[in-house]
């Protein structure tokens, strides 16, 4: 009886172990399938023209996504000038000055707006900037991505500042250095690598966003010269080409998607490798 | 030493006050953003609210030509695709989190975690592209006929098969929310105290029994929080769903029929809205979406924060 029971329990243990393993394989299966298709369908269309030429008019073969690739980088750069200072300084407040209740609410607020759908951000910036300025613009696209970066960077900055040993702060304060200089010259400098990691992850996240750019940056078949002109972006271009009826555009959409995913996941992998010891420490 | 006031600027309180004030302002920008989002959407939808009132939430007419607007088909499509997404994603991702923290051999945990983080980083539009050209054709030829053949007695699996459909939208949603539910559940399970497990092992429990008795029942509330967080993401998921759900404002019993969601109607029609009323109606759709996602997210955050304090930080 007990022997039978024991066998049954061991069998059940093995069964659950393999069942959850199958689930884990199913979870990463889509990733593998998507990567495989991107390489199979996109790689052959990656050539010199793809990176250097403007899109050709509908129906004409050839052309490239040079302006969309450049547009994505410019948008990410401009978005950081808004998202990084606000996010980092907000994170400094959360970590270095403790007002228990206020900080709880700020954290809660940041986590909640992190979950606001990206399309809603697009509508807000449309009402805020596109309507008054009477046109889609690079500036509006940068602002929407910058706003989305704020809560992300705020939370990661807070987290890495918490990892700076309290002893550093106490030692510096004991020397009579003002607190703001302790924070800006010692705490922030110690945590710099972690903060950069957080910024990179936020960039990778907003760099792949399409929905908020649909009615802010809008897209452009040509080069953008002013902040007030619409601008092309890689995710927008992929979307427009994917839903178009032209085979050649589908081919380019796959190539664009391959470039975008290589960009986004190489940022992610670099960051994970660079900060492996930090995460390992946290996990212990 | 001759001038005792030399170092004064260093200890003067003004630098500290200014710096603290500056960081406080930046931190408070979170609340400014919340107010801004709510205000802009409410302001934009004022006209539609005045014209349609509560009728907007009960009418299923979406007829831009005759300026009749009701959001029911979109609410239906959003709920249907999100629920299908949850039904597929929740068991898979919680099982994966259990495998990662409790049952898997140690060497496999790190690489598997990296794969899941990479899946989380796949942009929505890329998943949508894959959805249109790879997943939907496969569903149309293989999975949907199979479902119709085996489960066709249920009304959900009857009717013509087009490909782009509520079910395809639900499957894409599931893929989008798998990584977030998995990684938050994993953090929750990792925060279960080791003593819980050791106590169960001491009683002679097998690995799975330890997981079931000592870990899962302890972490129930947190895991529920992870699921609700996934629901919040599912409701607001835009691009990938827009690309595979078929974009037709109808309410059909069959899951093979095309549908439309709150987020995708905004994505598709916002820049083509020709009249003020049309635009305002779309703003109100956005407001409904915002209201629902903020409520769901707030609930998820409360569950997660009360489960284990601020230590458990949901991955974004």
Write up this protein.
The complex is a heterodimer of chains A (284) and B (316). With 284 residues, chain A is mainly α. Chain A contains twelve helices and no strands. The relative contact order of chain A is 0.14. Chain B has 316 residues and is mainly alpha-helical. Chain B has two domains: 12-42; 45-311, MetI-like (MetI-like fold), CATH 1.10.3720.10. Chain B has a two-stranded antiparallel ribbon. In chain B, β1 and β2 (68-69) form a beta hairpin. In chain B, α2 (13-44) crosses α12 (276-308). The longest helix of chain B has 33 residues, at 276-308. The chains are: A mainly alpha (284), B mainly alpha (316). The interface between A and B is large, with 96 and 97 residues.
Structural descriptors:
heterodimer, A: 284 residues, mainly alpha, MetI-like fold, 12 helices, disordered C terminus, B: 316 residues, 2 domains, two-stranded antiparallel ribbon, 1% strand, flat
Shape of chain B, please? flat
What is the CATH C level class of chain A, in words?
Mainly Alpha
Number of helices of chain A: 12
- Share of helix of chain B, binned: over 70%
Count of discrete structural domains of chain A = 1
Structural class of chain B: mainly alpha
Query: What string, H for helix and E for strand, traces the elements of chain A in order?
Result: HHHHHHHHHHHH
Oligomer: heterodimer
Total beta-strand segments of chain A: 0
Instruction: Catalogue the unreliable spans of chain A.
Output: 279-284
Number of domains of chain B: 2
Concise overview:
The complex is a heterodimer of chains A (284) and B (316). With 284 residues, chain A is mainly α. Chain A has helices at 2-42, 48-52, 66-96, 100-114, 118-133, 138-162, 166-174, 179-190, 192-207, 234-242, 247-274, 276-283.
Topology of this structure?
The complex is a heterodimer of chains A (284) and B (316).
Chain A: H1 2-42, H2 48-52, H3 66-96, H4 100-114, H5 118-133, H6 138-162, H7 166-174, H8 179-190, H9 192-207, H10 234-242, H11 247-274, H12 276-283
Chain B: H1 8-11, H2 13-44, H3 46-52, E1 62-63, E2 68-69, H4 72-103, H5 106-121, H6 124-151, H7 166-190, H8 194-202, H9 207-236, H10 239-244, H11 262-269, H12 276-308
Antiparallel strand pairs in B: 1-2
Helix pairs in contact in B: 2-12, 3-12, 4-7, 4-9, 5-7, 7-9, 8-9, 9-12, 11-12
